[in-house]
């Protein structure tokens, strides 16, 4: 067992955890923040995506004890029922989900992905590595491909992210 | 209410709420992460124990011994469930293999033990300490090898296994133009995002299971049957389901093992099937081999149409119904279909999105494309030429074994020669799709278009899927403030049930959508159709319609007027010069109405089906053979569309699964050891964002009064039927390489591609 202190959605959390506990299970089973989903528990589906220290990660692929002192944002930290985060509102408007199980991961991933583009980080489909990447649909599709949606709301998710990226929502 | 005559004008036709592209009512919950799925009920079981499933390491044989000694003393372990200590278990009516195996093993990764511990980590560690010795038995794992000895099946879902009209053999032999080709489709996995999960809690002899299940009443019955306890003692709760696609139609090992584990540990226990167990532990869509023979006149009129299909399953299992649509889609005087079922010792084959038509259309619609080329006729025109407005096949008695028949109240869809379709706008779908897609710009000659390194091609396929109707009940409450609560055990697997049910109640009672609260997925609510076979939206909203009609009558009665004179609008009821708020009529006690829709002879008198057309453009890389889908269009004729936004999402999701079927999805069979090798989400490839372009969907403006008072039909499975063939046909058009063996991976194209230079 180890003591771990995390800041989750702005709140300090002190936990005593089995060293084998993933960040995902620390969130879901210990902090009861079940918005972050366990789809595969082996880094293949993206449903567990959270934002750690500003970067999106698969929370199933990292142990909680590796995040001592880290600041974690989960889906519960993005918006409130009174005021959805623009990405959440865009997903509702564009019907960017069906069963909803991949949705928190898609949204966390999308929010962090827009920051990556803003920061000028290129992707596999960025044609010119010396210029700032543009938020094209090809760029979004490439960068979001770690988040599987088996209901396949892909076409709508791209519209939702594009609207947020253009500042329309 | 009984639905026995075609619907006439009713309150749904107002279309004030129904037919609108409303956002999903549960959308904010899902996007905020507040919708609760089966493994997430921390408040109802404050201190649950965790179960971890151990799957069999052999495909067939026996467990010689299980050594639990190390696992039992492993830290935190509370109980270990095996067949040896679980007590006598029954088998669910809908299950083929047992959900807890041992000592006999029926398939690979069949559950053989559940370790229950204080924490997930402890349960997982202890599971690794179990030592099992197996005695392997030889098994049959190769469909192609078993094909020639496979006997005729008894039946397929939706009818008999074989049919004959006229003299197929004679007409085919005499036909001046013939096509005789064999196609194969692989085993496929549902791969829904949420694993099969359950939390079980006993209170005395009463069991409550929070689970992830499409069909609550089937699940309740089968869980009781498996545990040998009365059905009344079981309650299932499943308000949110992280995808199903047929994989959660039935009770699976998670529910049974959580229940047994909770009994053994005397604690609530939760179990999520580990992802790597899912493809082999649960059900899958079986592989098929399909032979299609088409004979035509020189002008392209089909005179002989034959479809043979082979698939495999465990003993006492069932075949894929790939021949089903061939009895209904195209005209032709001489016909045959036949379904053979091999016994295989692979995991249990069962329903996956549009079982039957999904695989059948993958074959039939390539065959039509090949035939069109032989005839020199445009493939859109060939399909139009062979349209039929009546069912061309012989009557098939309904199969008593169909899931939708087991309730005993369903008029199964059955072919019957000469029977009319309730609606059939197949030609309209093809014509409109061709126009919108720009089909006339397609080159009939393959490999004629190039865009840099990409060979460009377009393909078309028909879409066909039956419309099934089944009894569905609901309870509607009206409170003193004019709020409405709808309760039914219907499920929302991403289909939009919450939303279309809310829209139905709002329309029927004349209240704003935000005054309707819909509660689903609880076996204490009236029994609904459940979600499967694209029957859910039409049937469950019809059940809500019936309950709302009854509530309208109760309101009218309270006012001492006739229900037909009362106008329900804006949260008020008006009769003559009386104008009363609904809440006032309900009074402090409120009003509660419960009713069910029961479908009668219309389902037998008419063939009810949904139709469509898929158009696809692909690029195939001339050097690597990689296929990229560039454009997709589906045109659907599926009755009244209750919510165009949710319906469109269903169709694009299905189109995407069809792209998966065309290009990548395949459970690879290890034919020596008898299991699916690629049993996780990295190696069983499904489409990701980068694989799917913007998708277009057009719904024809259609109502079908034969189908239900909603005049709606299913659409969620229509969307997958034919897509894979449209992709395959587009690849042929792009490259000139005809692949009849799905999925169409680049290795199957490389040899036939033109020189790169």
Describe the structure.
The complex is a heterodimer of chains A (169) and B (757). Chain A is α+β, with helices and mostly antiparallel strands and 169 residues long. Chain A folds into two domains: 2-77, Beta-grasp domain (Ubiquitin-like (UB roll), Roll), CATH 3.10.20; 86-165, DNA polymerase, domain 1 (Orthogonal Bundle). Helix content of chain A is 31%, strand content 15%. Chain A contains five helices and five strands. Chain A has helices spanning 23-30, 86-94, 103-118, 137-143, 154-165; strands spanning 2-8, 11-17, 49-52, 55-58, 71-73. Chain A has a five-stranded mixed beta sheet with strand order 2-1-5-3-4, sandwiched between helices. In chain A, helix 2 packs across helix 5 (154-165). Chain B folds into three domains: 2-35 and 469-604, Aldehyde oxidase/xanthine dehydrogenase, molybdopterin binding domain (Aldehyde Oxidoreductase, domain 4), CATH 3.30.365.10; 41-138 and 199-281, Aldehyde oxidase/xanthine dehydrogenase, molybdopterin binding domain (Aldehyde Oxidoreductase, domain 4); 424-468 and 608-757, Aldehyde oxidase/xanthine dehydrogenase, molybdopterin binding domain (Aldehyde Oxidoreductase, domain 4, 2-Layer Sandwich). Helices cover 24% and strands 25% of the residues of chain B. In chain B, the strands form nine sheets. Chain B has a seven-stranded mixed beta sheet. A five-stranded mixed beta sheet of chain B has the order 1-28-22-23-24. In chain B, helix 9 runs parallel beside helix 18 and helix 17 (644-663) packs across helix 18 (723-735). The longest helix of chain B is centred in the last third of the chain and has 24 residues, at 536-559. At the A-B interface, helix 1, helix 2, helix 3, helix 4 and helix 5 of A face helix 1, helix 3 and helix 17 of B.
């Amino acid at each position: 067992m180890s003591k771990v202190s995390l800041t989750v959605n702005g709140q300090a959390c002190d936990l005593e955890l089995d060293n084998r506990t993933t960040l995902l299970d620390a969130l879901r089973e210990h902090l009861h923040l079940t918005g972050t989903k366990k789809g595969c528990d082996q880094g293949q589906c993206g449903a567990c995506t959270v934002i750690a220290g500003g970067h999106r990660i698969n929370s199933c692929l990292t142990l909680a004890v590796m995040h001592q002192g880290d600041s974690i944002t989960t889906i519960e930290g993005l918006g409130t029922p009174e005021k959805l985060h623009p990405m959440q509102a865009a997903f509702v408007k564009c019907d960017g989900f069906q069963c909803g199980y991949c949705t928190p991961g898609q949204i966390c991933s999308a929010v962090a992905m827009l920051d990556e583009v803003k920061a000028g980080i290129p992707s596999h489909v960025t044609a010119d590595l010396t210029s700032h990447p543009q938020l094209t649909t090809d760029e979004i599709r490439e960068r979001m491909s770690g988040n599987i949606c088996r209901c396949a709301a892909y076409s709508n998710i791209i519209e939702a992210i594009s609207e947020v990226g253009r500042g329309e929502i | 209410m009984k639905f026995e005559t075609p619907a006439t004008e009713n309150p749904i036709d107002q279309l004030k709420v129904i037919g609108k592209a409303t956002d999903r009512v549960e959308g904010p919950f899902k996007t905020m992460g507040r919708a609760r799925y089966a493994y997430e009920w921390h408040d109802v079981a404050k201190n649950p124990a965790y179960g971890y499933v151990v799957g069999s390491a052999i495909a067939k044989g026996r467990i010689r011994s299980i050594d639990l000694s190390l696992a039992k003393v492993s830290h935190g372990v509370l109980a270990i469930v095996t067949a040896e200590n679980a007590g006598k278990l029954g088998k669910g009516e809908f299950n083929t293999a047992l959900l807890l195996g041992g000592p006999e093993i029926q398939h690979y990764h069949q559950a053989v033990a559940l370790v229950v511990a204080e924490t997930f980590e402890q349960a997982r560690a202890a599971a690794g300490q179990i030592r099992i010795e197996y005695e392997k038995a030889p098994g049959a794992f190769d469909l192609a090898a078993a094909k020639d000895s496979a006997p005729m099946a008894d039946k397929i879902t939706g009818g008999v296994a074989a049919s004959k009209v006229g003299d197929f053999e004679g007409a085919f032999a005499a036909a001046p133009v013939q096509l005789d080709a064999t196609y194969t489709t692989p085993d496929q996995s549902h791969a829904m995002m949420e694993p099969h999960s359950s939390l079980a809690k006993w209170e005395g002899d009463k069991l409550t299971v929070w689970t992830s299940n499409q069909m609550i009443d089937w699940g309740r019955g089968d869980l009781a049957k498996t545990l040998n306890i009365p059905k009344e003692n079981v309650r299932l709760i499943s308000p949110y389901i992280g995808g199903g696609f047929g994989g959660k139609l039935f009770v699976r090992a998670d529910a049974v093992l959580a229940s047994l584990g909770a009994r053994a540990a005397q604690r609530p226990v939760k179990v999520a099937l580990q992802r790597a167990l899912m493809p082999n532990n649960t059900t899958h869509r079986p592989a098929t081999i399909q032979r299609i023979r088409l004979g035509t006149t020189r002008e392209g009129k089909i005179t002989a149409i034959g479809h043979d299909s082979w698939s495999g399953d465990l003993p006492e299992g069932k075949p894929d119904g790939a021949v089903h649509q061939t009895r209904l889609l195209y005209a032709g005087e001489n016909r045959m279909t036949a379904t053979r079922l091999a016994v295989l010792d692979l995991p249990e084959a069962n329903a996956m999105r549009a079982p039957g038509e999904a695989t059948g259309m993958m074959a039939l619609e390539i065959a039509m494309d090949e035939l069109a080329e032989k005839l020199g006729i445009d493939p859109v025109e060939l399909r139009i030429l062979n349209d039929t407005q009546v069912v061309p096949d012989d009557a098939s008695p309904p199969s008593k074994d169909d899931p939708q028949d087991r309730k005993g109240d369903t008029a199964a869809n059955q072919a019957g020669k000469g029977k009319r379709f309730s609606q059939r706008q197949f030609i309209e779908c093809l014509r409109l799709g061709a126009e919108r897609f720009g089909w006339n710009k397609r080159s009939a000659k393959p490999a004629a278009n190039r865009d840099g390194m990409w060979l460009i091609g377009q393909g078309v396929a028909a879409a066909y899927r039956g419309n099934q109707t089944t009894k569905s009940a609901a309870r509607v409450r009206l409170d003193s403030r004019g709020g409405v609560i709808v309760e039914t055990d219907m499920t929302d697997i991403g289909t939009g049930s919450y939303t279309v049910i809310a829209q139905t109640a709002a329309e029927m009672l004349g209240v704003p959508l935000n005054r309707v609260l819909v509660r689903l997925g609880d076996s204490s609510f009236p029994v609904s159709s459940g979600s499967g076979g694209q029957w859910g939206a039409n049937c469950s909203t019809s059940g809500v319609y019936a309950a709302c009609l009854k509530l309208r009558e109760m309101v009218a009665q309270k006012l001492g007027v006739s229900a037909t004179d009362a106008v329900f609008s804006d949260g008020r009821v008006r009769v003559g010069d009386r104008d009363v708020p609904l809440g006032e009529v309900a009074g402090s006690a409120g009003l509660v109405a419960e009713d069910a829709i029961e479908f009668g002879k219309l389902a037998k008198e008419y063939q009810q089906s949904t139709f469509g057309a898929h158009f696809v453009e692909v690029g195939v890389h001339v050097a690597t053979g990689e296929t990229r889908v560039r454009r997709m269009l589906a045109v659907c004729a599926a009755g009244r569309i209750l919510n165009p936004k949710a319906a469109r999402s269903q169709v694009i999701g299905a189109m995407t699964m069809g792209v998966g079927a065309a290009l990548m999805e395949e459970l690879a069979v290890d034919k020596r050891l008898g299991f699916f090798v690629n049993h996780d989400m990295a190696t069983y490839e499904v489409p990701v964002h980068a694989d799917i372009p913007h998708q277009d969907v057009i719904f024809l403006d259609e109502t079908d009064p034969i189908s239900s008072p909603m005049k709606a039909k299913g659409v969620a499975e229509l969307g997958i039927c034919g897509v894979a063939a449209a992709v395959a046909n587009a690849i042929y058009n792009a490259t000139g390489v005809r692949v009849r063996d799905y999925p169409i991976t680049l290795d199957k194209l490389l040899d036939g591609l033109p020189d790169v230079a």
